[in-house]
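I'll show a sample.
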Amino acid sequence: MVKATHRSERRKTRRLFFAALVKELYLMWPIFSGILIIMLGSGIIISLIEEWSIGEALYFTFVTGLTIGYGDLTPKHASARVLAMVIGFSGIVLTGIVAAVSVQALGAAGRDDPERRE
């Protein structure tokens, strides 16, 4: 019986977390979408400058934006390199916002759990 109660508490906490996460993402969506538009726009411009396909440009954008940077695609022109820096900084900001939203949702799940208030 104790395991079943513990399991139901975990499910309830998980539900509270995901509800709070969806709420936080809804509030932050304008910022997320703005950053993604900047990243994708920069990637498309790089593809035109470097004469890459759209697939290569999207791959480069997300590998650079997630700060992985494999190095298999590298811009040769100075303007494309500047745009790659914009993508990298945007990716760092996006990662920070995702982490902040997740922490906020965890805090909200803990506050909204009536069993934790006692």
